[in-house]
User: Fold this.
Amino acid sequence: MPQCLGNFSSMLSVLHLGMNNLQGTIPSTFSKDNSLEYLNLNGNEIEGKISSSIINCTMLQVLDLGNNKIEDTFPYFLEILPKLQILILKSNKLQGLVKDLNAYNSFSKLRIFDVSDNNFSGSLPTRYFNSLGTMMTSDQNMIYMGATNYTSYVYSIEMTWKGVEIEFTKIRSTIRVLDLSNNNFTGEIPKVIGKLKALQQLNLSHNSLNGHIQSSLGNLTNLESLDLSSNLLTGRIPTQLGGLTFLAILNLSYNQLEGPIPSGEQFNTFDASSFEGNLGLCGSQVLKKCYGDEARSLPPSSFDEGDDSTLFGEGFGWKAVTVGYGCGFVFGVATGYVVFRTKKPSWFLRMVEDKWNLQSKKTKKNAGRYGARRN
Assistant:
């Protein structure tokens, strides 16, 4: 890729070079105080690293580097771009940890954050989620994003939307997407994701996430698509998800979930494909009837609790109590039988004899008093 593009960008607000079979590396010569607002290099053959000189593009709103061959770690320096709303790094060779943020209010303006199909590892970036302010509030005034000084141009991006790869020729300002799928993320789903109430699409599929599905996801009332498939998630499906009235796409397949599938209008619209690969699930959707404790739903847990576990749900449930009681009863009976079979317990006999003698004395004394009264 010609390095002169970096200097050329100082005269432009829009630079769209996607799908041009460009090769080479990203220019490292983005000048300071340039007016670039939109940079799209998607679908080329770009290699190397992401140039840190991009931070000179302080007006940048859209950065799309998806579908290239970039080999690098997560570009932390991008977090200081004050107006960045869309960051697409999907389908590259990025790797390593996505560590905690370094700058205050990092990525606070992001509406679309897509780092899918890379090799990122470690825990999900909880503190970044805590900083995504724009994803926490809905935009009531829907407009189409475009260059402020080039009004005839409207921004476009290519993105996976509800499982389908499509091109958005216009980007609505209301759209909110978080896609970290097809990486090597581990650990639990952070409860803080429940704060991103404006999210319309959340995709954490094809990772190695474990633990429970957080009940705080029930706070994502604008969610239209939720994909947690192909992970190592355990436990039950939170009943709170049944309250997501806009949810049109749900994929929880190929985890280790168990128990009843929540009932309700929304869940009744999903077929078996949303739940396949979870042998412990039961319900009409998977044609498996729930019996006994399977039919018992977990009590709702608040967002502050952070997960769907309770004291009696994680080790002190009625099953554990029943097993403990039964084992104690059997042990007591067996011990008593052995003691009485092998040797008389003298302490027990003395206690019974004393009790018997005391009762006999009381009976004789009462009989004597009764006889005296009759005379």
User: Anything to note?
Assistant: The chain has four helices and 20 strands. The chain has a mean pLDDT of 79. The longest helix spans residues 346-374. Helices lie at 4-8, 126-131, 318-342, 346-374.
